[in-house]
Write a structure and sequence with these properties.
The complex is a heterodimer of chains A (716) and B (507). Chain A is of the alpha/beta class and 716 residues long. Chain A has 27 helices and 24 strands. In chain A, the strands form 6 sheets. A 7-stranded mixed β-sheet of chain A has the order 3-2-4-5-7-6-12, sandwiched between helices. A 6-stranded parallel β-sheet of chain A has the order 16-15-17-18-20-19, with helices on both faces. Classes of the chains: A alpha/beta (716), B alpha/beta (507). The structure holds iron/sulfur cluster (SF4).
């Protein structure tokens, strides 16, 4: 079961005409899909669009009523390929993933989809993981839309506008026989707002009302010679059709006065940021009543040349507000104006940053510069910029050193942490080796206290990225991969490739049972548990079938045995791929399963043993080696009680789930003897009580515990 | 143009702390009170305990516009610096981060923050004390806000056994600083409507509402100030009068520590070692206090006998029971993780025998033990070890530690004759020798290196004396900061280079 439960939200997917939906942007989009009569939905999880799939997975009832088929795909290529159903049939379909990475993976299928084009509306909803909070390389999806002739929507971020965009996207797709990408930035996906709903539409053809096969039609194949005809069709028929539809349905919005000496052309997704700065300059208000002619491009590809020239004609200058590099829009607009011989001056990345998120400050500064050039500068905007920069500088000075960042880290009791503790111990013992890191929770090992990893080449790519490294290093490299990445493509790209080429390297597969980083979605190897969808395919069996001879399984929490196994893998005389499968269930998922069960047993008076760790503050010397080998959020520091010492001591708080790593590390690294395991037997049985009484009696007989702390100290 | 400014709220929290739920409560209650609201967040992978922010904009009394699907108010998705009315932070560093980013401003912003710290990994992982200055952060936050409500809401939450976010909501409700009218009952209704852990959250809400003393950010960094208690001072004997008043509390503590560690005679040896310094020129209060402190710690080194003794303390079980929140009737077991090495175990033998045995065994041999001290067998094993206390003065380890102490005191003594500032630094090098096993060995090796390459050459006049104190300080900081790395070797090389340069210049 995914991490986030959508019970309340799922109900809102059932809302009918005239009701009000309150919720997140990505759920509003999900609702809009149902209102648009989709026949099938699929995708691959990834922030910020995971919720779309998670919510649908939990809405099976509603989907089967409507006849909507849902597929949780093994990767984005599979999701893109799924849209093939719309090539031959009048089926509306939508898939989702995180971009840019997911679009990269999907690229081959996308090209083959775009070439023949579609009959039924095909929509790709991408989470544009760009700017603050992004976890992937910073690139734009735009390039894919351009090269494959896919249309790209970047709607204004408010719920009614998102919902309308989804509905119009299907029509646009069908009118122009072209798949459409809808991009949503992180903040738009998580935006909480409202819109008036319509009834859901049961599709004409669906899992409930099935079709027969389409007649043979060579032009539906992306295969020569059809591909040559398709290339021409894209530009000769589909593009003009799309432009006409965009223009006639006013998908792009012209706001503010018609005429004026200057104007602004802005990506829909950035309009709200821009409006805030315009309002500050006295050129708009909270309702978006801008005082400068503004063209909001809810469709950023294709542009409609007449719309652009008409907007620019008669203006001395326009500002293009376009986030990220390269400046595709600015280039395209420049070309349109040049060809139409419109002399309007084009501004954009000369006043706005070439790269990086368009925050209010970035947009404010660019806007101020543009306005100043054209004598529209208002003092309010400039004063604000000066004030903000002055305060940032002043606080910066008062702070002496920059504030430390707080990157994400492994959760309390995470099963992956012990593996990295073992690797760190090994690094001290043996000399470091080259580490190929991967995407997933385990990439947190690149942060302190583990600070390891030499490259990250994408999801499931660690082993493939080790190929030439292993051939040119004195020591075998180690590749780390999660089970998510393993099934996403690591098995083929990495393992099969390494076997085929007889690469001599070591692979660790973190088998925690879920795609954990994206919210614990089930994967092929997820165990079959109550309510779960995982078929429980065994990773070791899959490896064996590919011919991997050296496979060892370890329990991640056994630090010493993980270290021993890795040492053996690194030192083994055997050439070829050596795989260590590190088993340990995602602790978040485990706790979510166990907590209600424990509460029930406690309430029923059953015996429950709660285990946690504890640091003896009298024995801790404040060296914190334990923290440098763990970084568990529950393993903390606190002020020293000893009047003779000042360094803070280590301290385990009550969030500790007793994973045992603390004890394992204390033993494996021979740390100070300050760690203790605490077992609390709740609702003890008569036998428990008898044993305890005997022990206590015996201890008392021996004079009880040692002396108390000297009174001097306890008096404190 | 009419300028209806939306009310803006920024919530800064850590992943998993319920910042999103807090945002959702605000959202629900604002809608219920007839306002227009839009909000967003940056959770992403930061859900995993990283820094997260949530941002809300509220247009007062415009709730009807939720029902219109044409054009709602255009609300920003990013907080703009200088345009935030309320910042709620669950932690002091995150509050300060919001200040540093310009979201908290003296003209506009009310800051409601917990003064508690959740330490970053760098602060936690530093050997010694790597904590940021909490007082300085709180001061900056106060200076930069229109109104700052900074209190230890985390402690209030712990006491109420309720989530911190609910306590913050309660504090927000009670403070009346929210610049848009939302009644307390609307907040309570929102908590119920959210439907998660309703009882605990309502409890937290009420705890947050309760009036409290305005606590300042806790200044735990007492540094090297001693926290000796008044009762202690009663025990100041005539013996202590020989020492500067500033050092007396620490010396009294040292006497108590060493009496407990060994016996009164050993405590007397401590005093006897300190006495000659009491009247030395240059040995003022601070110097004596630090000398007494380090001497007491180094004389009560945690050998296996001491560890066993500490682990048998009577109050331990009570303390653990309390800390782990065990209920009456629960049985609490404590299992110690120990791994004595060859040196620790053979260190119990008499010096000659011990050295003979150590020469014949691999030094990296160690024996992992799990000892349950709350059960008879485990208790018995530690009791037997602790009973060796009387034997301690005859052990190899004791002999080695005594030799170390004598050597260190001799260096302090010689340095004091030369420069009080340098002597102070030589005293402080004692902090490098601590811990167990590898940590201890590394520390000791680093200490020896500093003695050999910095202190002795200085004392012998082979390096420029003018930089004596500074050189020892640099070397000891390098060793403390990076005990496993190359920092110390680099620092020593730098000291040698600058000495050589000076030498050349003088000639
Ligand atoms: S045993 Fe240690 S590592 Fe495991 S959850 Fe507790 S504090 Fe964290």
């Amino acid at each position: 079961m995914p991490e986030v439960s959508f019970h309340q939200q799922i109900e809102s997917l059932r809302l009918g005409a005239g009701e009000i939906f309150y919720g997140e942007g990505i759920l509003a989009v999900t609702k809009a899909l149902l209102q648009s009569g989709v026949s099938y939905v699929g995708g691959y999880q990834g922030a910020p669009v995971s919720h779309l799939l998670d919510a649908l997975v939990q809405s099976q009832g509603l989907l089967s009523e409507l006849g909507v088929h849902l597929e949780t795909c093994t990767n984005e290529a599979a999701a893109a390929a799924m849209l093939a159903a719309s090539i031959n049939y009048p089926l509306r379909g939508a898939v989702t993933w995180k971009s840019i990475v997911g679009t990269n993976v999907a690229a081959d299928a996308l090209s083959n989809l775009a070439s023949p084009g579609v009959e039924g509306g095909a929509l790709i909803i991408v989470g544009e993981d760009y700017g603050e909070g992004a976890s992937v390389i910073q690139e734009r999806t735009y390039a894919f839309a351009l090269k494959s002739s896919l249309w790209l929507l970047d709607p204004r971020p408010d719920l009614p506008s998102l919902v309308r965009s989804v509905e119009m996207a299907f029509e646009l797709s069908e009118t122009s026989n072209t798949p459409v990408i809808l991009e949503l930035r992180i903040r738009a996906c998580h935006m909480f707002g409202s819109f008036a709903t319509k009834d859901n539409v049961a599709p004409a053809h669906s899992a409930n009302r099935r079709l027969g096969p389409a007649p043979f039609n060579y032009d539906r194949l992306s295969h020569p010679p059809a591909t040559f005809r398709q290339e021409a069709d894209k530009v000769e028929r589909r593009l003009p059709a799309a432009r006409r539809f965009i223009f006639e349905n006013k998908l792009n919005e012209q706001l503010g006065p018609r005429e004026g000496p200057i104007g602004i052309i802005v990506q829909g997704g950035l309009f709200n940021v821009l409006n805030g700065r315009l309002a500050l300059a006295g050129l708009s208000d909270v309702d978006g009543r801008v005082a400068i002619p503004t063209l909001v491009l809810n469709v950023v590809h294709p542009l409609v040349p007449e719309e652009i020239t008409r907007f620019c004609a008669g203006k001395s200058a326009v500002l293009v507000v376009e986030e990220g590099a390269p400046d595709f829009l600015e280039q395209a607009i420049g070309q349109i104006l040049r060809k139409a011989d419109v002399g309007t001056q084009l501004c954009g990345k000369d006043v706005l940053p070439m790269a990086g998120e368009y925050t209010p400050l970035a947009v404010g500064k660019g806007l101020a510069a543009f306005l100043a050039r054209h004598d529209r500068a208002g003092p309010a905007l400039e004063q604000w910029i000066a004030r903000v920069e002055a305060q940032q500088a002043q606080v910066g000075k008062a702070l002496v050193a920059p504030l430390p960042a707080r990157p994400p880290t492994f959760c309390t009791g995470c099963p992956e942490r012990p593996v990295f503790a073992a690797m760190k111990l090994l690094r001290r013992e043996m000399e470091p080796v080259h580490i190929c890191a991967d995407i997933g929770c385990h990439s947190f090992a690149t942060f302190a206290p583990f600070s390891q990893g030499n490259s990250i080449l994408g999801y499931g790519m660690s082993l493939a990225s080790a190929a030439a490294v292993s051939a040119t290093q004195t020591k075998r490299p180690i590749s780390v991969m999660g089970d998510g990445g393993f099934w996403h493509n690591g098995l083929i790209t990495g393992v099969a490739g390494a076997i085929f080429n007889k690469d001599d390297s070591v692979l660790i597969v973190m088998n925690n049972g879920y795609a954990s980083a994206t919210g614990q979605q089930e994967i092929v190897s997820s165990a079959k548990e109550a309510g779960g969808r995982g078929p429980g395919i065994d990773i070791a069996t899959a490896l064996k079938s590919l011919g991997v001879g050296w496979i060892k399984r370890v329990r991640t929490y056994r630090v010493a045995s993980v270290a021993r196994t890795l040492r053996a893998a690194l030192r083994s005389q055997a050439k070829g791929l050596k795989v260590v499968i590190a088993d340990g269930e995602c602790q978040l998922a485990r706790q979510r399963r166990l907590r209600p069960e424990t509460a029930r047993r406690l309430a029923a008076g059953e015996r429950v043993v709660r285990t946690r760790f504890w640091v003896d503050p009298e024995v801790c010397t404040g060296d914190h080696s334990c923290i440098r080998l763990s970084g568990c959020p529950s393993l903390n520091i606190k002020p020293n009680e000893d009047p003779l010492r000042s360094d803070p001591v280590a301290h385990v708080n009550n969030d500790c789930v007793g994973c045992g790593l603390c004890g394992e590390v204390a033993h494996a690294a021979q740390l100070c003897p300050s760690f203790a395991q605490i077992d609390i037997i709740q609702n003890p049985t008569g036998w428990d009580r008898l044993k305890q009484r005997l022990s206590t009696g015996f201890i008392r007989l021996l004079g009880g515990g040692g002396r108390s702390k000297p009174a001097l100290v306890t008096a404190e | 143009m009419a300028h209806v400014q939306p009310i803006t709220v920024l919530i800064a929290a850590l992943g998993g702390e319920g910042g999103g739920v807090l945002a959702s409560w605000l959202h629900r209650s604002a809608i219920a009170e007839g306002h227009f609201v839009q909000g967003t967040s940056i959770p992403g992978v930061a859900q995993r305990t990283g820094a997260t922010t949530y941002y809300l904009e509220i247009v007062p009394h415009a709730g009807a516009r939720h029902r219109r699907s044409d054009r709602g108010p255009v609300l920003a998705l990013n907080a703009a610096p200088g345009e935030v009315d309320l910042v709620v932070a669950s932690e002091l560093l995150e509050a300060t981060r919001a200040v540093a980013q310009g979201f908290v401003t003296p003209e506009r912003t009310v800051l409601l923050a917990s003064s508690a710290r959740v330490f970053t990994i760098d602060e936690k992982a530093a050997a010694g004390d790597g904590r940021l200055d909490a007082q300085a952060m709180a001061d900056i936050a106060r200076r930069c806000s229109r109104l700052a409500i900074i209190a230890d809401f985390t402690a209030i939450a712990a006491q109420a056994q309720a989530p911190l976010n609910a306590v913050l909501l309660g504090a927000l409700a009670a403070s009346g600083v929210l610049p848009v009218p939302i009644s307390e009952d609307a907040f309570r209704a929102a908590i119920r409507a959210e439907g998660k852990a309703v009882d605990a959250n309502l409890r937290g809400f009420e705890a947050g509402r309760a009036p409290r003393r305005t606590a300042s950010a806790q200044g735990d960094k007492t540094g090297d100030q001693t926290r000796a208690s008044p009762p202690l001072m009663h025990l100041v004997s005539q013996q202590l009068e020989a020492f500067a008043p500033q050092a007396r509390a620490v010396i009294a503590e040292g006497i108590a520590r060493l009496t407990d560690y060994q016996d009164a005679a050993f405590a007397n040896r401590y005093l006897a070692r300190l006495k000659p310094f009491a009247s030395r020129p240059g040995a003022e209060g601070r110097f004596l206090r630090e000398l007494a402190r380090h001497l007491a710690l180094r004389m009560s080194v945690e050998d296996v006998i001491r560890v066993a003794q500490l682990k048998l303390r009577k109050e331990r079980v009570l303390r653990v029971t309390h800390e782990a929140r065990a209920r009456a009737g629960d049985i609490v077991d404590i299992t110690e993780y120990l791994k004595p090495g060859a040196e620790e175990i053979l260190g119990l033998l008499p010096p000659r025998l011990g050295r003979w045995a150590l020469a014949r065994i691999r030094h990296d041999r160690a024996w992992p033990l799990k000892v349950t001290t709350t059960r008879a067998s485990g208790f018995l094993r530690l009791k037997a070890l602790a009973a060796l206390k009387g034997w301690r003065p005859h052990t190899l380890r004791f002999a080695e530690e005594e030799a170390w102490v004598e050597r260190w005191l001799e260096l302090v003594d010689r340095a004091l004759a030369m420069s009080p500032a340098a002597a102070q630094e030589v005293v402080a090098t004692a902090a490098l020798v601590r811990g167990y096993a590898d940590t201890y060995k590394r520390g000791l090796a680093n200490w020896r290196k500093i003695v050999e390459c910095v202190i002795e050459p200085m004392l012998a006049g082979r390096l420029s004396r003018a930089h004596f104190a500074d050189a020892v300080l640099q070397a000891r900081l390098a060793a403390a900061k990076d005990p496993e790395g190359e920092a110390l070797a680099e620092t020593i090389a730098a000291i040698r280079r600058s000495a050589a340069a000076e030498h050349a210049a003088a000639e």
